[in-house]
Design a protein that fits this description.
The protein is mainly alpha-helical. The chain is 53% helix and 1% strand. The chain is built from 11 helices and 2 strands, in the order H-H-E-H-H-H-H-H-H-H-H-E-H. Helix 1 packs across helix 7, helix 2 packs across helix 4 and helix 5 packs antiparallel against helix 7. Bound molecules: zinc ion (2 copies).
């Protein structure tokens, strides 16, 4: 299946970097870098940053991506909210916004209408240009009809910035500037760029096992830093799988945790693809072209 060709694009006015988003975004970068230079390296600080990196990466991969955007496993309403909360404190906008835009990415992947295709608009745009402009500030609620029926998700979407500010501030209250610097600023900058690699590098760097209609790739290094999201060609091929590593040697920490939680009843339907789907070689119509599940098919929250 041919990968979509690049279509020339004339940048729109609302695709320029936006001050309101850009100041906090770049400001946290400056505090992180200048703060570490000014106060010196701290191994315990780095451990704190890594801890909150992986905790929140789980919120993005298992929560925002695999659960809310793709409904690839089931859980009860309490853990559903916990996933939304962990995603929210990752400082990557609200759960409904994230899921609605991600569903659009899959609908048009790497075509001219894809909101963050490196094929169409280059690495910088796909990595962060689309995030710090005005164009995608709004979300299409029609994309997330299945999610807006939960009032707590509408609530956490509405107050996501307040929650982020409270979260960031709590580090300072707990451990002063050192904790704020490492636990929030350094950790969040790493988390942003770790997550963004899936929109940028995962569509240009790695192997293609499946002949999908986009240019998605599988990449072990990206899977390591994103808890399994680097198996992106697998994912574009079969979005309904809770696992993105399809074989045991494809390290997928999010799947391992979700699977572990299924043994204690927190999650269910945490599966790899059926063998006949997984073992199909290239030149097959990707099952990922199946529509996103709609409200009637959704798991009932307990
Ligand atoms: Zn996806
Ligand atoms: Zn993709």
């Amino acid at each position: 299946m041919p990968v979509p060709k690049r279509v020339p694009h004339v940048a729109r006015e609302d695709e320029r970097p936006k001050i309101v988003t850009g100041v906090p975004f770049w400001g946290i970068h400056v505090v992180a870098i200048a703060g570490v230079i000014a106060t010196g390296w701290s191994w315990s600080g780095f451990a704190l940053a890594i801890g909150f990196y992986y905790l929140r990466m789980f919120g993005i991969t298992a929560g925002y991506h695999r659960y809310f955007a793709h409904r690839s496993f089931k859980t009860g309403r309490v853990f559903q909210f916990i996933l939304a909360f962990l995603g929210t404190i990752s400082t990557q906008k609200g759960v409904l916004w994230w899921a609605s835009h991600h569903r659009q990415h899959h609908r048009y992947s790497d075509g001219p209408k894809d909101i963050h295709s490196p094929i169409q608009r280059g690495l910088w745009w796909s990595h962060l240009g689309w995030i710090i402009c005005n164009r995608y500030e709004r979300m299409d609620k029609n994309e997330v009809k299945d999610l807006v029926k939960f009032p707590e998700l509408v609530w956490i979407q509405k107050y996501e910035r307040v929650i982020v500010v409270l979260f960031a501030t709590s580090f300072g209250v707990w451990g002063g500037f050192w904790a704020f610097l490492w636990g929030y600023c350094v950790s969040t900058v790493m988390l942003w760029h770790g997550t963004f690699t899936i929109n940028s590098l995962s569509h240009v760097w790695g192997q293609r096992r499946y002949d999908t209609t986009d240019d998605s790739r599988n990449n072990f290094l990206l899977a390591l830093i994103t808890m399994g999201e680097g198996w992106h060609n697998n994912h574009h091929y079969y979005q309904r799988s809770a696992a993105q590593g399809f074989y045991w040697w494809e390290l997928d920490m999010s799947y391992m945790i979700l699977k572990g939680l299924s043994y204690v009843g927190v999650t269910s339907g945490v599966n790899r693809p059926p063998r006949h789907v997984r073992d199909k070689t290239i030149k097959n119509t990707p099952p990922s072209e199946a529509p996103v599940p709609q409200a009637a098919e959704l798991p009932r929250a307990a």
